[in-house]
Amino acid sequence: MKLSDVVANAGLAIYAQIALVLFLAVFVAVAWRVFRPSRKADLESAGGMALHDAPQSDSPTSRLGAIA
Amino acid sequence: MTTATSAARLESFSYDDDIVRKFMWATLLWGFVGMLVGVIIAFQMAVPALNLGVPFLSFGRLRPLHTNAVIFAFAGNAIFTGIYFSTQRLLKARMFSDALSKFHFWGWQAIIVAAALTLPLGFTQAKEYAELEWPIDIAIAVVWVAFAINFFGTVARRRERHLYVAIWFYIASIVTVAVLHIFNNLSLPVGALKSYSIYAGVQDAFMQWWYGHNAVAFFLTTPFLGLMYYFMPKAAEKPVFSYRLSILHFWSLVFMYIWAGPHHLHYTALPEWASTLGMIFSVMLWMPSWGGMVNGLLTLRGAWHKVATDPILKFFVVAVTAYGMATFEGPMLSIKTVNSLAHYTDWIIAHVHTGALGWNGFLTFGMIYWLAPRLFQTKLHSTRLAEVHFWMATFGIIIYATAIYSAGLTQGLMIRAFDQTGRLQYPDFIETVLKLLPMYWARALGGTLYVAGILVMWYNVVMTWRKRPAAYEVPTYQAAPLAPKHVDPAPALPNGVWARFQAAHWHRIWEGKAVTFTVMTTVAVLVASAFEIVPTFLIRTNVPTIASVKPYTPLELAGRDLYIREGCFNCHSQMIRPLRYETERYGEYSKPGESVYEHPFLWGSRRTGPDLAREGGKRPDLWHVRHFENPREITPRSVMPRYQWLLQNSTDYGTIQQKVDAMAMLGVPYGAIEGGRALTQAEQMAREQAAAIARNIEKEGGPAGLQDKEVVAMVAYLQRLGTDIRKPAPGTTASTQGVTRAAPAGGQ
Q: Which residue segment(s) compose the domain that B723 sits in?
């Protein structure tokens, strides 16, 4: 008896649908966590990180204008 | 920010911008080369003679070079440019190892050179965007691991607690690309530059498009989104519009993209459930993708006036808009009925180019214009020229897209048109091709304009580089190291499980934990893949076998390898869908059981020429010989390239035994037919069959003495295609056709 026989008889076809529901559930959970009002200040402050990534140095990059 | 300030001691460090400069030059170089090859084959589509009759310049061999060069060389180097620049800054740490950075750079360029040599020479695995043969695949894996070590080493040594969302996108890309690459490329070598996929038929197709679609997702989408979330705020000088939306964007892509692959296989021999699942997830993807697009565009709130004067922002705005268009179109194309019209036509080519030229190209150009003055520590040579480049590229895309969308729709509609008597309105495939020629000219023009724009950028960047200082300034920065164990001040937990759950800072802690985060992402990707792939591989009823389907003869196998070498699958499909206009045109639709010995599958994805799944017996042998010699003598104005060298090259009989042995090792039952003769006398069998075919060609009035020429092997293969199903199954009467079970391939 091969592994494929075992799996073939295990009735797994429904698993894909179960997984779909699971993934949707996790997604909704993440969405809900992220968008709770109490998280707003906390998270949005992180949104500025790309702009504040040259700590304590007057770098040549920050001194130059973007473009001529 | 969130940096732990508990340690008062500050550390000094500097960034490695040298590696960023290297990757940027490579991006410029390969961007030009890859797209130039695209323009060349675009012209060949209109004028096949432009391949000059040289094998390695023919369409089937250059097309994979174009796609690989644009995806892995141009987009790849662009990603690395942006990642090496932004990661160091976002993590406040120099790259983990300069040596690994250099190894990554030179290793990647060596792989590109290897690809540029082997693909035109016809060494290919025949799987789209995974064409490179096994030694190069191993090199890719090694270089990728070096990159991963370097990246995660930097994450481990970071001086910034919170991982900015761009870093998440990078992590997901690095992990997933590794998984995809390894699983799709598992193959059995049969020589230094030749291998057979360990998967066959439906399973190989499924694996390939799981890979293929996720290559789009995790090579052309997520890393570029990481770049967008970093460089867009930089250029606009505004924080990202909604950081929370970006988190949602991230997780939904990771959770959904991995499922979407089967939408490339609608109406094929793939089980219906898998195809439906792929469709549902693809449609769901529309929402988060647009969330991301809106997030990108709204980052410009209050900065829109700058767009008028700043070419960088212009490039970014068009890039994000193109992302929005492509991610709207993608879900639409994955709906089965829409797909039935668009699949196999230029519509898909148009879709891809909206993404590649618009999203990946423009984001990269914007990034390079932003980076060049900073990396060369001077001002950009000319904003005017950047502006000129923007308009050239924009018009290039507009011309390209208009032409190729029209071509796709035109051919799709012609292929399915019936006249009033219920017969195909355009029964000759070539009619549908000739209609497209003006559009092919327009496409070539649009492409040329786009590539010319890149030359303008080259000039601008080189002139900027020439104004660099004698020695680059390498500023040192200071930041506190992270405390080894970061503990958030514990809040008093309220009573009740639910309340505690909500109050716990799990999400915050989690976002700061790189290892946990990486593991979570990997688990999401692996679980989704397993749920989708395992049933296809292990549930036997998904691939009903057909008793009359037998392995190829040794000569046919050799012919099949020529079909692979020449890249015929770039223009021809071998998969007839269960739709009336397909079966009317090509014959009985393809069954999953017909491709159980196909290592690799050759279903194809684009029909520039007609489907060949039932080509066997349709034409006399001599017809094929003459057609290869010059298709235009048989079918006036055909755009198929000439393959006159097939009539001149000698068949490599010496390797046939090795090929049969390899197939047998992969489970193709050569032992069970003709008493297993193929296992010991493959070469002899091939010579016998070739002699018979050559005699027949002569009898039909063709040239004599072809038995040792490649064309005979190719004809043997073509004449076999799709014929097994008409033969009686062993031990049954002819009328049952040997089909064990009708395939649940969907249909109308």
A: 554-741
